[in-house]
Amino acid sequence: MKRIVIALGGNALQEAGKPATAESQLEVVEKTSEYIADIIESGYDVVLAHGNGPQVGMINLAMEFSANKGGNTPFMPFPECGAMTQGYIGYHLQQAIQHELKNRGINKECATVVTQVVVDEKDPGFQHPTKPVGSFYTKEEAEKIAEEKGFIFVEDAGRGYRRVVPSPIPKRIVELNVVDQLVRAGDIVITVGGGGIPVVETEDGLRGVAAVIDKDRASSLLAQDVRADRLIILTAVDAVCINFNKPDQKELSSMTIADCEKYIAEGQFAPGSMLPKVESCMEFVKNNDHGGTALITSLARAADALEGKTGTVITR
Description:
Elements: E1 3-8, H1 22-41, E2 45-50, H2 53-68, H3 78-103, E3 110-112, E4 116-119, E5 131-137, H4 139-149, E6 153-155, E7 161-165, E8 170-173, H5 176-184, E9 188-190, E10 197-202, E11 205-208, H6 215-225, E12 230-235, E13 241-242, E14 250-251, E15 254-256, H7 257-265, H8 274-286, E16 293-298, H9 302-306, E17 312-315
Parallel strand pairs: 1-2, 1-12, 2-9, 3-9, 4-10, 12-16, 15-17
Antiparallel strand pairs: 4-8, 5-7, 6-7, 10-11, 13-14, 16-17
Helix pairs in contact: 1-3, 2-3, 6-8
């Protein structure tokens, strides 16, 4: 049976333009589970990863608001906020998937693994934090918090100042053996949620750090480590395009590594959008020693893409 790692994009968890509430998320996830069940029913062993951008922002904002207003809620470090999102997003996904599989008569278990991912404390990303998180503050408020807590703030599009955190490269999945055991048993595993909880290795053990790991890069590492046959990155479009949003826009049904490098050099893929997805796929294909391929497509067309009807396949 073929093994695939699926990286769920934000549209699999939240409807665009709607608040990141638990109720709205559960509604979207119920539909997402139908698409995932279609793939499982087709005969694939599935490992799921997901993002957590709006959700971790919501938790971080709520904790900050209460702490800053003198409430009883203590300030919550960023790694702990990430762990919270893994728990409640995983709960929604596994509940919806279990329900859908039961309705189809498919006897499989589904579980979430709260996952730590080791990063290098000397990663250049720690010297240049770029990922905005949490609340907007005035300059004076930001300077006061920076002095008290050592946070770094930047001005964000004229809306105020926001804390920024690093986005280091993932190096090792701590709970990999547990994930691998569940996958080998034929279970559906939800792991490296939000890219994983970033931790660094110290003499005293692992220590959480304030950072955000790109979920597509973490999914690529996961797919390599569990020896997946295919990495699927789901996003808002059916296929990768060049000349995106231009009159001569063109969908690509396939790309080799050389094609990817050429298009990246041309600046075809946006840094905050398609570029990390393509780079993550390249990394998986390059480091896969048994002919594995990667696929970028939309959630709604994922089953069709696996049959070659749509999507962009990346090959060595």
